What we know:
The structure is a homodimer. By secondary structure, chain A is of the alpha/beta class.
Amino acid sequence: xxxxSARRAERRSAAGSGGVPAxxxxxxxxxxxxxxxxxxxxxxxxxxxxxxxVLERLGMDFWSGDALDRLARAGLVVDRxxxxxxxxxxxxxxxxxxxxAEFAIQARNPARSIVLGGDHVNFSGVGGPPNCSDLDGxxxxxTFKDFCDLVRLEQSLNALHLVGGQPVASIDLAAExxxxxxxRAFITLSDKIWSPSALGxxxxxxxxxxxxxxxxxxxxxxxxxxxLLSNINTNSPLRVDGAMLDGAVAMxxxxxxxxxxxxxxxxxxxxxxxxxxxxQQNAEALAVIAYLQLVKPGAPVIYGGFTSNVDMKxxxxxxxxxxxxxxxxxxxxxxxxxxxPYRSSNTNAANxxxxxxxxxxxxxIWAAVMGHANLIYxxxxxxxxxxxxxxxxxxxDAEMLQMMAEFLRPIVVDKDSVAIDAMEEVGPxxxxxxxxxxxxxxxxxxYQPLVSDWRNFQSWQEAGxxxxxxxxxxxxxxxxxxxxxxxxxxxxxxxxxAFVARRKGEIARAA
Amino acid sequence: xxxxSARRAERRSAAGSGGVPAxxxxxxxxxxxxxxxxxxxxxxxxxxxxxxxVLERLGMDFWSGDALDRLARAGLVVDRxxxxxxxxxxxxxxxxxxxxAEFAIQARNPARSIVLGGDHVNFSGVGGPPNCSDLDGxxxxxTFKDFCDLVRLEQSLNALHLVGGQPVASIDLAAExxxxxxxRAFITLSDKIWSPSALGxxxxxxxxxxxxxxxxxxxxxxxxxxxLLSNINTNSPLRVDGAMLDGAVAMxxxxxxxxxxxxxxxxxxxxxxxxxxxxQQNAEALAVIAYLQLVKPGAPVIYGGFTSNVDMKxxxxxxxxxxxxxxxxxxxxxxxxxxxPYRSSNTNAANxxxxxxxxxxxxxIWAAVMGHANLIYxxxxxxxxxxxxxxxxxxxDAEMLQMMAEFLRPIVVDKDSVAIDAMEEVGPxxxxxxxxxxxxxxxxxxYQPLVSDWRNFQSWQEAGxxxxxxxxxxxxxxxxxxxxxxxxxxxxxxxxxAFVARRKGEIARAA
Lengths: 511, 511
């Protein structure tokens, strides 16, 4: 036991330096479990056929003259007056079949590169909230300082494979040029993969240019080794707006991967029945993916699922519900039906970082991981159905993700691990603390938590009776304090700054 | 929208009467999902063979003269001086094969009867904590009043199929006769299935006699239609004490189902490697089950799994960990290997009802349900690794269980539910709130929460910014206020009271 105590002490001091807790390292994840299937094979085909019926019989609005031109040239029935398209089912399937089942995205730091598709699992930070919150500052509209701090936290949390979209809006920056400041912050504060905003072509083009400068690549080279990822949502039901389509086309033309995510809240933007919401999700995703394959055959795309429901009492969106979990599993089945990588999300509708935030998130995470999502968006920090990025939730989510990552390790079963000799050594009624088998393995045997406190009540109470949210707050502060920016070649930074200055000038002159 | 608003108002008032929230009804659950498998078929066999090796080579302590006699007569190698038995693997397997794969337990209220085995899922309340806590009274040693309130709450929560074991100790009652008061309270306060304590023969015999009086049955009739359930733990590693064995035998002889649950905390009472802990769990469960089949061939028994790990930093037990989740799935695979019903638990090691309590519980619940546990013990109220029964956690768990129950509903996929006509009615860019398809279905379309608050931030803030734990507290109070005891024939109650009085006298005289 003395040897054990000594090692424990060593470990505590290593883990506790500067109050920054030990984290599991950044690690590429594979999912060896069979996916959970909520739909029978017959039901998958039923939804598949129904969604093709929707595209053939009802069609979709595509609010882009460019898109309507291309689709008309491809022989589809286009109603220009109503910006409406009907899709032949065989054409849709032939187009979707051109998309790759699996592809890689390079990070600026090659050790943070990812693969999407197959049994790969990747966690991406929250994107899109207008507000942020922490226990010190409360709930507030996001500023550029908050944005930068959240990106620093995302860079610091090993559980997060990529940064993803903007963790919070920066309302203190000029709207027209905000994306330039934000992209520069992504590139300088993190070496993980980030996402330019697909709201129009200009924002994507700027993002691609800046990534080229940061990586020292030209556009052709970037197209060969994609380094960005973006997402568009449909304007459900059965519509896609022009800005989204233009942004998507700009990504795909530049060879960068794009996620297509219908936003199908059952009872509001899609039918109240889950099968109906899934049919509509599938129709919308297939139509846009088919179109992008027309723009660039073989373009790397991801099937996004975001089917949840509204609370029929209040009309408020509900997340992390049983409906959400089942729709998430079903979405994975549909994506696999088309051999497309699958994106889901870690969602909740809680107004504070409490037990509800945790159980709704767990419902989402389990369904996403066991539905074989390859990319789990909003994996850290999402609160209030996406209206808030929470610093504490970000750390709490990192704990839940780390736990899921550990859950994805197979159990080692062999002569050594079944440990009959250890049982013989210890004997009936003994304990294994000091056994040779234990001593040789205990340091790496078990998951080490980031937030969870497993001390007994008295020790926990003496330490201040702090909740998991309180502890997450302290950890977020410690991580920010210990944060160091990843290295970036000064010449590239200079080029980046020159680009930002030039583009700001151009945008000012155009305004 | 007017029709919808009117119905919403109706529903709100129905749900809100007396502050008691609407709950989903008590409902027998079946699990249509394929179980998640963490072990390959080869690894299941490897652990199976290794555990039979343990029983043959190392054997187990059985601290009961009666058990040693029976096992010696059955031809096993018995070392009486050390109260130790070695088990022939073929004998073990022949015995285990006698146990039924599925059986029913009748509740006093036939509508609360359950089936264990196959794809049935049942949730049972917390059993065993010495302490309880709520936001008003804080953490305290349990009293009989707390015990009764917790049983009332368990009776009131529809998510709970059975009450199970004692939700908290009653330290204000005399230890020798406490079980009599407690059993009387179970019978009068609840019509769900409860568990007598298997700590010795006397406590089981009293429980069986009292259940006979409550149901108006004799012991033979009770043996034909079992109405009780109890649990024993082994004294891991590789030991079972005399009181547990005697209690188990008393249950089995009376035809009542018994759970056998090794308590194999990896690194403490079992090897530090998960495969070793599972091998030991399996060996201990099989040995005791084989013995009980010797006592009464065909006795209904349940394979219990309770493999978690200790925190190697502090030695404290950890629950709801990735190790726990994987061990839970593996335990289900082992139980199915022997065609035995499977018991797991809803666990956590949190010291308060916070996000940690919720995410550790969700890890447990998902693993238990997707590992096809037929009985999930400690499903409501468990806190601090089982040292505390929490009133708020009980309500919060009921929410998580209700959500899981809803998750266990298949998605209806047919012409009506894929709702192409509704999409046609609404059209691109419209909304489904007032659609005919929505109006016909919205009242029952979605899960209705017990604790979750989905209002927007402003409404939630105006209502007091209350956490899920605060809301669970209010709900627990409202449920206790609205509680009414289930009917019991006055003649049976009289007989029960006479029995308790007589037994108290006998026990006092014997002391």
